[in-house]
Each structure stands twice: as structure tokens, then as C-alpha cells.
Amino acid sequence: MGCCNRRCGLIAGAVFGAAVAILGGVLIPLGNSIIQGTVEKEAVIQPGTTAYNNWVATGGIVYRQFWFFDVQNAQEILQNGATPVVMEKGPYTYKTRYLPKDNITFNSNKTVSFLLPVGAIFDPSMSVGSEEDKVTSLNLAVAAAYSLVPTVLHSMLEKRINTSNSSLFQYRTVNELLWGYTDPMLNGTLGIFSPYNGTYEGVFNVYTGQDDISKVGIIDRWRGERSLRFWDDKYCDMINGTDASSFPPFVDKKAPLYFFSSDICRSVSAGFEESIDLKGIEVYRYVLQPNTLASPTVNPDNRCFCRNLKTTKNCTLAGVLDISTCQDDRPIYISLPHFLHGSPSLRDSVKGLNPSEEHHFTFLDVEPTTGFTLRFAKRIQVNMMYGPSNVITVLKKVKDYTIFPLVWMNETASLDDETADKIKEELVSRIEMLEIIWKALLGSGVAIFAVCSISYCMVKRNHDQVKLV
Q: What global pTM score does this model have?
């Protein structure tokens, strides 16, 4: 009788262990389903959701740091045609994107439109000097006029340069070069980023994700259009992905992330590099692909971005993007800082450049469950071009076309400790708790089932041997 009770107890224990293990197994899809449902609900861009509050106003502080290329041998360049020598000067840091989105309008097609106000506030504590520091830089007016004025009219341009006492280089303050100054040659305001304060980016139209969470944040229209009108090509004019501030939830690291940047007037993609820890939160690091600005001979998809056969050496030049068509015909060339991943000829034509993958690459750190970008660094360089002329005195010694670096910018932001704690409390800790519970139930259930099953077999064998005796 006692042996029977023992065997019954072991059977009951095995059944209990199996039930506990099954419960642990059931919790895996059940817990994932609960998390997925919660995330999908909170990721929708509509009033009252977590995504909406973060979307309307940037939680973390966004900074723009500027490094100027200070010309060291301006007179030698003018008099002897010497190769320009530059020295990096910076950073000069500004707080930006501190204003919430404006004119937010929800549309009937499950999209929301908005304007993005822009502004810059100087932060002396994060800068090497004041906005009144001076830099010897390329003369924006002379370089622009050289690119825009036909060669047959260079004699008129020469008179204008002389009358205004202008030269190929100028000595200006940081504030003037960035945000604007009155140019004597053009009798108008010029600046690398002028106009800026008090202006808007947009209008943007993005999907709210209300009917399809996989489309949340994806751009439907920019400035009222579903494609760009800068490149005269269907592929290059595509507007792909989001604005990079967030992506649809449940990010698949095997797939690239696509985003549109109005700064460079085109869509780009970033590929997964590694998983890293950011203040106790696992994030996926995505980096801009090295072939983004490759020459069409290496990346045929870039053929439609090649605009000028002369300056791009018949579209074989890598590392620069002519964005003049989206800059009101201002001859601006965009590159990575110090011509990272660019053709060697770019660095040969200007001495003092030292590209570094560590300091000059662009990355996004994305939380994979929510799709929120928790940290990023967008690094781009602004350049202009000048070349030889038989008529314009300040260009007579120039031997070849030169794409000249003006300034490079690091726009960066990272989540603060308060936001990190909130994410860990509301998301990470719940996921970890579910994992602990189902692992504990599954592990203990399997252990109980195994012990009881083995014990039952041993008891049964002993009992059978006793009966035989």
C-alpha cells in the first residue's frame, strides 16, 4: 500500500512538473503577445500615446557642433597657386531642435502633417571660444558667382570683385559665416546656413500607424510631394523611410533602415553594425553605408546623383554630393567630414585633412522593440567649389577645380537619465520579468518532471524485483 502511494505521489509530481513546464512554455508567446500589443498601441502617433508625446517635442537636447577649416596660407594660394593648407577650428556648439512641431494636422488618410521649426542657441560652455572668433575661409560670394556666372561674363564678374574689394578668401566671425552677413559684392545677406533662425523644415506628412503599425513615422509626402524634384530621376527622387527620429517597432537587424534627410536632399540607408548597451538598454547601432557617396563606377545607383561632369571627373569622383538643385542653385557640395570615404584627390587638393572613421561617421542607436532612436550622430561637411580662370585675377593662379571644405557639423543627441529610467521601468524591466518567470517555470517544471519520472521508474523496478523474490 505504501509503495502504491509513493508511486501515485511520484506520478502526481511528474504531472505537476509537466504542467508547470507547459505553463512556462505558454508564457513565452503569451508574454510576447502582451508586449507586442502594448508597444503597437503606444507607438501610434496620436494624442495620449507615448510615441506622440516624444514625437511632438524632442525629449533629449539636440546639439549642432561646428568645426571650421581655417585657411593658413591664403596669400600663397593667390600669389603662387599653392595648395591650400587648412587647420580645423572648433567645436562651436549650438542647441537646436528645441522647439516642438508646429501646425500639427491629422488627415483622413491616417497621416499627420506638421512643420518643424528650427533655431540655434549658442552654448559657450561646449565651445572652444565665442561666436566672435574669426576664421579665414573661402569667400562664399566669389565661389558662388564663379560657379553660376558663365565664362563669357567673367570680365563683368572681375569688375564686380574689384569694385567691392573682394578676394578668394575672407576673414569673418563664426556667427557671420554660419548665420549670415552683408556681402559687399552681392549687397545681400550670405551665410552657410542663412536663413536659419525663425524658419521651418517641411511640410512633412507621415503615417500615424493607426491602421498599420509597420508604417508609423514613414514619410508620405514632403512639401506636398511624394517624390523629390531635384535629381530628374525616379530612383534618386524617391522619399524613403522616416526622418530617422524613430522607425516602426520590432526592428529586424537583418534589414537596413531607410530615412530621408532634408539636409542632403535625398534618402539614404543605414545597416546594422552591432548591439550595444546604452544606459542599461540594449540598442541596435546602425551606420551609414560606406557606398552612400561612392562614385557611380562603384555604386551604379548613384549615377543619377552625378550632376557636373567637370567637377566630378566624369562621375568617377567619390565622396561628394552636389545639392545645388535643392539649395536655390547655391553651389553647395555635401560630403562626410574630412572627405571620409572620398576619393584621394579631394584630400590631395587641400592639405590638413585627417578623416577618421571613429570621429566622422554617422550612426543611429535604435531601441529594437519600440523603434525609437535613443542616440544619434549625424556628421556632414559643407563644401564649395572654385576653379581656374584666365580673366578673374584672384583665380588666375588656380590650377584645377577644387572642392573646398568650409565647415563640418556634428548633430547629436542622446536620451537623458530620466528617459532611460522610464524606458527601463516600463519596457525593459517588464520584458526581463517575463523572461525570468517563464524560465523559472519552465526550468523548475522540467526538473520536477524529470526527478519524479526517474524516481517512479526506480520505485517501480524495486517493487517488481521484490515481487519476483
A: 0.85
